[in-house]
Amino acid sequence: MTYKFQFRPYRRRFVRSLTTNHGKWGIREGIILRLTDESGKVGWGEIAPISWFGSETVEQGLDFCRQLPGEITDEIIFSIPDELPACQFGFESACEMGSGEWGVGSGGDEGDNFITPNFSLLTPNSLFYSALLSAGEAALNQWQTLWEQGYHTFKWKIGVYAITDELEIFESLIQTLPAFTKLRLDANCGLSHEEANLWLRTCDNFKANPELPLEIEFIEQPLPVEQFQEMLELSRCYKTAIALDESVATLGQLAACYQQGWRGIFVIKPGIVGSPSRLRKFCHQHKIDTVFSSVFETAIGRLAALQLAAELSRNNRAIGFGIDHFFEQEDTWLQSLWNDL
Ligand SMILES: O=C(O)CCC(=O)C1=CC=C[C@@H](O)[C@@H]1C(=O)O
Ligand SMILES: [Mg+2]
Known about the structure:
By secondary structure, the protein is an alpha/beta fold. It is built from 12 helices and 12 strands.
């Protein structure tokens, strides 16, 4: 198949910047792709890298797009190198969307200048969402509104402030969160081995207390990527689950951690993991325990990611896409990128 290829870079400021152990993130940059096939069907895709997680940079994605001809083929798309996982995701999902494989999204004709993602088809009962709580004590004032919006799973960033302060806030959080809430703790590689043991011991002690019917679902990426063996060892010492995120950011890393014995939770960020078709193959073959997670992409990338989450989520784990409060309404903004068409 041959496609007419067009792309537009974008920059979007978060409504509220995100602070993690990696630092402060205030602006999401990425690239929107538009593929028009020979029958005029339009497919949209998005390249939304997170280079500090191990994907390519936005600049590398732009360089790749710029060196492509105005007409590209399936062969070009399915031979995008593994060093460009966000490009693999963006181009492949644009093909899938344009071919109408998902039964949602654009798949429209040439005149269909813009996709109006129909998320409802993807999220009736099959998926539910986790909401992200800011690092530090701000979380204590955020969860209530989100709970009232229907979120019952929350992810709180740790490894940002002093552990003594975060443990104190944690105690307040678990005392106030409603029963049967699920709480995830995401350290973004930011704990020392000693701190990881302290957090896991604290969570295990909490789990042993039947008075508090709240579930600590997992601690995400407690240690740096280089300390895989230590995390594998920790996963065998505590009841509280550990989820790998930065360690399994790309398909190559995912396969390597599995091959080295990881059978815990895998956080999958479709936007940066790489080829959707190869991800499907891996997940179907190995039946891994997955949590799907956003890369703070636009509605275009999110639709493609939710499609994969709907297909590949296991164990009823909420997906980390509850971030609408991060961005203003985006339909008109996204459309404005293509006003020159
Ligand atoms: O997974 C979620 O619940 C929301 C997305 C999220 O937490 C992240 C998205 C992108 C980069 C990171 O800062 C962060 C993460 O570490 O998972
Ligand atoms: Mg994470």
